[in-house]
Design goal:
The chain has helices spanning 2-15, 17-27, 33-65, 69-88, 99-105, 112-121, 124-133, 140-162, 164-204. It is an all-alpha fold. Helix 2 crosses helix 8 (140-162) and helix 3 (33-65) runs antiparallel to helix 8 (140-162). This is UPF0056 membrane protein.
Length: 205
């Protein structure tokens, strides 16, 4: 249970489904509720696939390119810190995708994989965290628990996107802005932790 909660806490702020709500609502504003819900479900399923693949195979990819896990943690920490800074600025939640991508997505019928699943929900920061969750000391049971944590995260993300219209109406722009700043601070802290732990492992352990 602790591993599942740790996985959720490590990934939730970086995935930040609340930050995906404005873009999701913009891209699905002319869709029926059934189609909008379908897009949210498919995006969350894609997110599970992306994060699970990088969790299970990421270490082998790093080994193939000769990249140490500590190098990834530093690079990932820098990316996560940038995402945190973006969330701390007004309108920062929309910076995960460029305006050109949003404009292109408005002409697509299926936005579940891109830009919703990638890069909104499972962007570089979430992928870096997923790879960082893997260690050689993990048992098969621990891996299953981490995958369950990823699936639970997807379920929570789906509920948030599913009721994004109601949540936006309830929280208002001020509430969403405050929530974005809170998420940004947490994401920034995660990025700092990634970098500090990697430097400690490289030079002090």
């Amino acid at each position: 249970m602790e591993i599942i909660l740790a996985t959720l806490s490590a990934l939730f702020s970086v995935v930040n489904p609340f930050g995906a709500m404005p873009v999701f609502l913009t891209l699905t504003q002319n869709d029926s509720p059934a189609h909008r819900n379908q897009q949210a479900l498919k995006a969350c399923l894609y997110m599970v696939g992306i994060l699970a693949v990088f969790f299970l195979a990421g270490q082998y990819v790093l080994n193939f390119f000769g990249i140490r896990i500590h190098d990834l943690r530093i690079a990932g920490g820098l990316m996560i810190m940038k995402a945190g800074f973006d969330l701390l600025t007004p309108g920062g939640s929309n910076k995960k995708v460029s305006p050109d991508v949003v404009e292109e997505a408005q002409h697509k019928e299926d936005i579940s994989f891109t830009p919703l699943a990638m890069p909104m929900l499972s962007g570089p920061g979430a992928i870096a965290v997923s790879i960082g969750l893997f260690t050689t000391s993990l048992s098969y049971f621990d891996m299953v628990l981490i995958l369950i944590g990823i699936i639970l995260l997807a379920a929570i993300s789906y509920v948030i996107l599913r009721f994004s219209t109601q949540l936006t109406r309830f929280m208002g722009k001020a509430g969403l802005s405050a929530l974005s700043r809170i998420m940004g601070f947490i994401v920034l802290s995660i990025g700092v932790n990634f970098i500090v732990s990697a430097i400690y492992a490289l030079f002090l352990s």
